[in-house]
Design a protein that fits this description.
Helices cover about 40% and strands about 25% of the residues. It contains eleven helices and eleven strands.
Length: about 250
């Protein structure tokens, strides 16, 4: 049985979190990382236009970081108390070559972990995990240097009103009962289970990945080389040049 590294990180700001994920991607060492955000943040996909997707003034008013990810996908609000984030780094050969199939494999591991908590979580294309048709996790993926990074959310709680305040959503999407309808399409562990301990969620997700990939997960930490890359990578993610490139 192969052994992968598992890193459980304390909360960090958005540039630091994205710098760590990219440093791990450069290494390519099979790693499951679980982490949180402080302050809360809004991340946008690599190809998105920030002014079209984000209300920057609202983010500033609410003390929410804004960061551009290295991965694609859409804008995501990361609540410092309402979300646990995962990232998985593996060599490409550890996953199906087809991007959709690789995403399915990883999201199936997430779903298996959530099932450990007693919820009927299932993979839903393209890159979501749902419970009773409601989204509880979304993911994004990128591939560099023969390595794969996929990272995404596990919703512990949802503040839909704040989310819509931070994101620029067209009037047609939020007209009438748009926010209520959008909220109805999303769920969280607290909505499903009541009070939930974050450590229990971490343990369940670890078991889901171990079972799905038939690996052992061993507690680990960043290597010296991974740490040495962090200042330069963090500077990139904190820069206006990176954030406002589109």
């Amino acid at each position: 049985m192969d052994t992968w590294r598992c890193i459980i990180h304390d909360a960090a700001d958005a540039p630091t979190n994205m710098a760590i994920d990219e440093s791990l991607l450069i290494s390519g060492t099979p790693t499951l990382r679980l982490y949180t955000w402080h302050p809360s943040a809004l991340s946008i996909g690599y190809f998105q236009g920030i002014h079209e997707e984000v209300d920057l003034e609202a983010c500033q008013q609410h003390g929410v970081d804004v960061v551009r990810r290295i991965s694609g996908g859409g804008a995501v609000y990361h609540d410092r108390q309402g979300e646990l984030t995962y990232s998985l780094m593996v060599p490409e050969q550890a996953l199906p070559h087809d991007v959709q199939q690789s995403c399915k494999r990883i999201c199936t591991a997430l779903a298996a972990g959530l099932q450990q908590l007693g919820v009927d979580a299932r993979f839903a294309p393209l890159n979501d995990v749902v419970v009773n048709g409601q989204k509880i996790s979304g993911s994004a993926q990128t591939r560099r240097r023969g390595h794969v990074l996929q990272h995404g959310t596990v919703l512990l709680d949802v503040d839909a009103a704040l989310m819509f305040t931070l994101l620029r959503v067209s009037d047609t999407k939020i007209a009438g009962k748009g926010i209520d309808e959008a909220s109805a399409r999303v769920t969280s562990l607290s909505a499903l289970l009541g009070d939930i301990d974050r450590d229990d969620v971490i343990g369940a997700l670890r078991r889901g990945f171990m079972d799905t990939f038939s690996v052992a997960l061993e507690d680990g930490a960043l290597t010296d080389d991974e740490r040495k890359r962090l200042p330069g990578l963090r500077e990139k993610y904190a820069s206006d040049e990176w954030t406002f490139q589109r």
